[in-house]
User: Fold this.
Amino acid sequence: MRLIRAYMDTIFRLYNDLGLALAAAVTFSGVLALFPFLIFVTALAGFFGGADAADRAVAQLFESLPSQVADAFAPAVRSVLSHTRGDILTVGFLLALIISSSGVESLRTALNRAYRVKETRSFWYCRLQSCGFVVAGAVAMLIVGFAIILAPAIQAFAGDHLERFGALVAMFDQFRLFIGTFVLLVMLFAMHFWLPAGHRRLLDIWPGILHTVVLWLFAGVAYSTYLAYYNYYTSMYAGLANIMIALFFFYISSVIFVFGAELNRAFLEEKNGDADTAKS
Assistant:
């Protein structure tokens, strides 16, 4: 009964507190930040001499999306990744970092609104923190990319020396989705823990994060199935159909993100309400 009440309260707040409109703003900021972020990743990879790692990491990122969504951005993404960027200290690189951090700021705004907290930290602190999230995300993508590239070589070496270790490495390619899900979980925990104002324990934020991941995976499968059997985007948007398919999926993902934060808030209020009742 308590769980149902929390769900109903979350759905009500998602609508009543303009959560759907806020999700649209997150989607817009996220799409604007996507390509500057890819430029940042390729520049960072070029600086370390790992352009192939950037290609593999981005490919892994798009593999976790519905194929129709990935196809919408594939030509533009290939164009971005085809230019090797070693200009890590140039104005263009810093501009890409700043624009990418604006996407993180939109997530901060959504979390602050969902958790009902007011931002009291300085503008510069928040912006530097957002830039740190961008750098951390880029480094994580490159680590995954390097792992994908090195996995076959490690597997070949281990196959000759350590048979069991070689089998473990061989599983890497088969479980990329699980690896991507793990990275997503870590990112979500970091966002919910550090981005919004105030302080929350890990035990307070895991329910919404778990729901976010599960709902996102379900949405990806459901959206792909829907597009396979019924796709009205082509008749309605003509040449813009692929872009609208991608944008709507990103919007669904943003709604799920806001829903997870609102659900955490509902659980926290239920918990605090029970504590107040016990004290009285």
Summary: The chain is about 85% helix and 0% strand. The radius of gyration is 21 Å.
